[in-house]
């Protein structure tokens, strides 16, 4: 946010300088007045370009936040998958030590089946997210680079 504020202030400084040149040009002779008028036009254009460049920084930031949000979501899915895998392993160990005639055996078997199903669902979600996140990152990167360099080109 600081750089955006600095760019806005710089844009305002150039706009003020352009206005000051216009005032100065009025009181000068024709040859200097023409030069000052042209210089004012250039400064005003550059001021506007800086202002627009500054305003696209929020769009760029939003693009980067969207990528980070997707990556954090994928990390969360992977953490849940690791916890579920640990749970499955723990239940399997209990079942191997347990006699089939124990009262809790069927409950543990059901818990194992439920955990295995949850793990398969998480695997599918992770695979789907991993396959789409690359294209999403590419799209967002292209978008913010286009904005960034388009804004820089406009300043030139």
TrEMBL record:
Gene3D superfamilies: Arfaptin homology (AH) domain/BAR domain (1.20.1270.60)
GO molecular function terms noted in the UniProt entry: lipid binding
GO BP term, example: endocytosis
Source species, domain of life: Eukaryota
Cellular component terms per the entry's GO annotation: eisosome filament; plasma membrane
PANTHER family named in the record: EISOSOME COMPONENT PIL1-DOMAIN-CONTAINING PROTEIN, SPHINGOLIPID LONG CHAIN BASE-RESPONSIVE PROTEIN PIL1
Protein name: Uncharacterized protein
């Amino acid at each position: 946010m600081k750089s955006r504020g600095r760019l806005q202030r710089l844009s305002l400084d150039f706009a003020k300088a352009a206005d000051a040149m216009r005032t100065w040009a009025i009181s000068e002779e024709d040859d200097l007045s023409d030069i000052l008028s042209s210089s004012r036009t250039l400064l005003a254009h550059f001021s506007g370009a800086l202002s627009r460049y500054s305003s696209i920084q929020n769009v760029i930031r939003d693009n980067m936040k969207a990528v980070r949000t997707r990556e954090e979501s994928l990390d969360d899915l992977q953490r849940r998958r690791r916890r579920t895998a640990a749970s499955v392993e723990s239940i399997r160990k209990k079942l191997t030590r347990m006699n089939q005639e124990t009262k809790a055996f069927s409950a543990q078997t059901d818990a194992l089946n439920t955990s295995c199903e949850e793990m398969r669902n998480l695997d599918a979600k992770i695979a789907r997210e991993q396959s789409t996140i690359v294209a999403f990152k590419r799209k967002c990167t292209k978008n913010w680079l286009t904005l960034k360099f388009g804004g820089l080109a406009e300043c030139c």
